[in-house]
Amino acid sequence: MPTTLTSNGCVIDQDATKFGRLRESSEHAADGTVLRERLSADGYVFLRDVLDKQVLLQVQGLIADELHRLDAIDPDGDRSAHLFPARPGLSLYKVADNISHEERRALTGQPALHAIFHAIFGEEAKSLDYSWPRIVGPGRSEQPHCDWVFMRRGTPRLYTAWIPLMDLPLSHGPLMVLENSHHDNPHTRRYLRMDADKLGYFDAARFKHGAFVHGGCYSRRPNRVCEEFGTRWLSTDYRLGDVIIFSMRALHATLDNRSMGIRTSIDARFQPARDVTDPRFVGPHPIAHSARDTNIFGHAKQVTGRQADGLTALRDKWGSQVQNGVLRYLGRRRPCGADGAHLAP
Ligand SMILES: O=C(O)CCC(=O)C(=O)O
Ligand SMILES: [Fe+2]
Predict the structure, then answer these.
(1) Quick one: pLDDT at residue 318?
(2) Cβ–ligand 1 contact at 160 (below 6 Å)
(3) Three-class secondary structure of residue 321 per DSSP
(4) Is 198's C-beta closer than 6 angstroms to any atom of ligand 1?
């Protein structure tokens, strides 16, 4: 009997029709033709033991500093079982912001990674300047989404590289990809037109699979996503040195971290160097998603057009905004009403 796996609290059925292991492509790491074929057929390539561990460990060390600063590590925890035992009761899902541009660049700029992307694109590759070092405590996960809705303002020739910064078996909440979800399909076709950073509060809100969803998330029910597509969630026991590279259009999520330790990983994005770059992720201090209008107070400020305090603005505008939002929601059947026309690949 395999140990229970969950994602966002939902049990992941490990029947062979619903859950499987990633296909490995490690021996083809330098073969652009095979990598491209697999990206096109599978939506991902998974390469074992191809990255420079020294560089990964340097970033891991910086994340350890951040964890100490956050007082997230249990001093009495079992260090032999977990690199970073989590303080009991800790609830943590965070992008580690103490890691400088240069330090991140050392990782994303490592020759091994560039060689892989050079092979994939058949030309010089570059990473977006911004990358996401993540620290994830017990019980936490990322919900199903496609990266395209967050990064659609540059070239469509863009891929995510998700890199574990420690050994991450299934029980520690690693990444999973929904099989064949990168192909055009009726489920994500409209969702993929969304530009998550352009949505107002109500545009970003909808129901999916019986749950309230907000922003760029596709669904909060990974088990229902799997049933909807009729394909499997694919993951693996990741080890330090591995990388999974996947399509912007592939649905992915993470398993819940069911261990007593903290999960650390980093994700970065790569594209051909000469292609247009999404301006949100350019430069030493990229704005990333900070301009996003994600809360109702920000939305209220925006619609009043003045620097009112959020509550005052809400009092003025609440009635009409709720009404408009409900009408807009009822009046459309697609998951989001965003203008996603530009740059659709
Ligand atoms: O590691 C995570 O929690 C989320 C990863 C992810 O969504 C990505 O790499 O695109
Ligand atoms: Fe993602």
Answers:
(1) 46
(2) yes
(3) helix
(4) no
| Domain architecture of the chain: domains with CATH | 6-194+231-291 (2.60.120.620)
The alpha carbon of 255 and the centre of ligand 1 are apart by a number of angstroms equal to 11
Cβ 249 under 6 angstroms from ligand 1: no
CB-ligand 1 contact for 134 (6 Å cutoff): yes
Q: How would residue 98 be classed by pLDDT, with cut points 50, 70 and 90?
A: confident
Q: Which of 306, 274, 132, 279 is nearest to 197 (CA)?
A: 279
Any idea which residue has 């903290």 for tokens? 262
E-assigned strand segments in 102-158:
125-127, 132-136
Question: How far apart are alpha carbons 141 and 92 in whole angstroms?
Answer: 10
Per DSSP, the three-state class of 286 is coil
Minimum CA distance residue for ligand 1 atom 7 = 253
Q: Starting from the CA of residue 132, give the closest ligand.
A: 1
In this structure, the residue with its CA closest to atom 3 of ligand 1 is: 142
How large is the angle between the packed helices 32-42 and 111-121, nearest 10 degrees?
A: 80
5 near 216, Cβ under 8 Å?
A: no
- Centre of ligand 2 from the C-alpha of residue 336, in Å: 18
Does residue 15 carry a pLDDT above 60?
yes
Distance CA 233, CA 231 (A): 7
- Under DSSP, the state recorded for 245 is E
Q: How far is Cα 135 from Cα 185, in angstroms, rounded to an integer?
A: 32
pLDDT digits (tens, 9 = 90+) for 140-151: 999 999 999 999
Q: How far is the CA of 307 from the centre of ligand 1 (A)?
A: 35
Q: Is the pLDDT of residue 285 over 90?
A: no
